[in-house]
Automatic annotation (TrEMBL):
A Pfam family that the UniProt record links to this protein: YjiS-like
InterPro entries the UniProt entry points to: YjiS-like (IPR009506)
Record protein name field: DUF1127 domain-containing protein
Domain YjiS-like: 4-39
Length: 46
């Protein structure tokens, strides 16, 4: 894999995790997400 592409994917994963972790339990529930799903969702985003 291209190192630049890998870096961009890593950055997008981290940004997604960071943003979802800012949400409280009610906001996550409104989106149909549990706190345990955050990493899986972030992986799917990239």
């Amino acid at each position: 894999m291209n190192p630049i592409r890998a870096f961009r994917k890593w950055r997008m994963y981290n940004e997604t995790v960071r943003e979802l972790n800012k949400l409280n339990a009610r906001q996550l529930n409104d989106l149909g997400i549990s706190r345990g799903d955050i990493e899986r969702i972030a992986r799917q985003a990239v």
